Prior knowledge:
Blueprint: E1 24-26, E2 31-33, H1 49-53, H2 69-82
Antiparallel strand pairs: 1-2
The structure holds iron/sulfur cluster (2 copies).
Amino acid sequence: MALVITDDCINCDVCQPECPNSAISPGDEIYVIDPTLCTECVGHFDQPQCQEICPIDCIPVDPNHQETHGELMVKYEKIIAQA
Length: 83
Ligand code: SF4
Ligand code: SF4
């Protein structure tokens, strides 16, 4: 699954630099995650780095973007190939 930032986000900016896939960016009102780039950190880290660092715990898994670990690994490999 990709993760999603909820509207509890306080725009503190600490998550953006932690993302190994550059999936996080400032949105119109709150930070947003591009689900095509979020691998839930699969391929890079054991735990989602944005979730680990968010001070208010507002980055749950996105029920609208459910993917298996294998699918996330395929996404990771595509992102790396394009880098
Ligand atoms: Fe980026 Fe990992 Fe957070 Fe997804 S889970 S947005 S890849 S830091
Ligand atoms: Fe928003 Fe959490 Fe990211 Fe801070 S770390 S910008 S509160 S999602």
